[in-house]
Amino acid sequence: MELTSSQQRRAVAAAVSVASALLALLTHEPSGLLVAVATLGICIGWKTGLAAVVTTSLISALILLSPEYGTENGLVRFAAFVCGALGLWLVVKIFRTVGFYDRGPQGVGPSNSDTPGLGWSAYPDGHLRFLNPAALKYVGVTAEEIREIMYADDFYWLKFLHPDDVEASMARWQHSLETGEPMIEEKRLRRFDGTYRWFRDTAVASHDERGRIIGWYGHTEDIDDQRKAEAALRQSERELRLLVDTVPTMIWLMTPAGLPYYFNKRFVDWAGIDSAKEEPRGTRQFASHVELFHPDDRAAVKAVFQKSFARGEPLQHKGRLCRKDGEYRWIDSRFEPLRDEDGTILRWYGVNFDIDDEVRAQESLRLADQRLARALRAASLAELSVSIAHELNQPLQAVVANAGALQRWLNADPPNYNHANRVAQKIFKNADAAAQVISRIRALFGKTEGELRAVNLNAVIRDVCDLLCDRFASSSVKLDLHLDPRLPSTTADHVQMEQVVLNLVRNGIEAMEDVSINVRRLWIASRRQNEGTVEVEVRDRGRGLSDPERIFEAFYTTKPDGMGMGLAICRSIVEAHSGRLWAENVETGGASITFSLPIRAADSTKSAATVSASVGAFRG
């Protein structure tokens, strides 16, 4: 018969003890009481066994010293019985102690007591059989106390578990007892000071040669610090994930080969990526994400990305990406590799910025700039028209005045034909002067010949500044004129000189549009040089020139709406007049553009045809 629990063993021991006591009373032979002493001492405990010695000694005295039994050698036999009972009890006590400290460890191996952590063993039915010194020290009980606990209750050890872990731990232990499978669980054990710590409890069954379970051997490892570290790590990961998911940009990670394996929540919500249907991390093909780009951008995106991944270089790229609602929006993508100390790429970090609104705003600004450029060109045409009107105004007014005088002389009574004839001559001269203005304008826009005459550059500068006075006021530009009052005249085409000065002044005003209003100042100077030339310098306080020489090349411009022809035409005009035009940056800030012309008389200059042909050839 196999007794599978301490309750069964105690019940059988009690029955044997009662039976042996009855038999001793019925037969008047006290030796049978020794069975009760041994049974109680082994199965119940040494204290109970000691009480049994006292009790059975009293019973044996009643038997041995009773009149029915006889008094012959009764005291001697009683003493012998007491000594025998005490000796039996002492042997039981000794072997019970040895069985706990020696037999238990021998069953699990010679090093069980020295096993790191808490070591224990149990009988096949799960009844606790042994705890190593570390386990006894942790729970704060002695070997004697744990022995009593073990024989008092099969699962008394549950009192050391956290109340929340008792049910689950008992279920797993029962499952292992029924199936023979190893038990691995994590639970909280109460320490001697009342605090609970996390442990990983591992138990395996030992089998005999016939495969029967002969015992369970377990190891309980303290993992409380590990659990706390893991909890702190999980909390840190949650905070990092929260940070990554709430940062106002789309973040995604890629393997060293450039295969996407993580998208933050903002990216998932923006692109409508279904995380539940995503392939395992690091296996999703990059081509499937290239499909999110606009069809016109896919080939370029794929080529640029693959080149960057192959070389391990950072990447910045702009393209149109499809949002979950089907709208393509402009995205600024930037990627950086994370390397270890050896330079090996561990992963790629990518961020996507939705710049669609910015791109659309820039496009709107570009269109606005184009409209403004057209308006400026129209304004330039208006300024040119004002200049033309200024040139034509004087001869036409003279024509009108003389025509009125002619009419008066003819309407006189009698008509004064002599005065009328002189006035008519003046009208012819005035009309001829107007025709010359028209001729110079045609020379400006075509290949017709113009007229060279003595030109006062100071007067040209003042006329241009008067013409642009409204422009100076609207741009908040202050004008500084430093004109040499003794500047000699030079022979040139008056209209073309006005065009050169007008272009330089307008460029100077435009160069200061993006600087502070407090520093907007245009400085214009005229002076005579010793080598027989006159110079006109226009200096602004703008940002300066990135390439002072290229600005005179045809079609080269730094303005979004510029044609790159203004300064090129100016240089052509100045060089056609045997002069020179150049630009340079000023140390105090801004740029300076200067042209020089030789001081010469009309008879020593090139013909008007030569000048006009030179400029016209450039235009043609």
Automatic annotation (TrEMBL):
Give the species this sequence originates from: Rhizobium altiplani
> In which domain of life is the source organism classified?
Bacteria
Ranges for domain PAC come to 183-235, 315-367
Give one GO term, molecular function aspect. Answer: phosphorelay sensor kinase activity
UniProt protein name = histidine kinase
Keyword annotations for this protein? Answer: Kinase, Membrane, Phosphoprotein, Transferase, Transmembrane, Transmembrane helix
- Entry-linked Pfam families: HATPase_c, PAS_3
Q: Which residues cross the membrane?
A: 12-28, 34-63, 75-95
Transmembrane recorded as keyword: yes
Question: Ranges for the Histidine kinase domain?
Answer: 387-601
Enzyme class, first EC level, given as a word? transferase
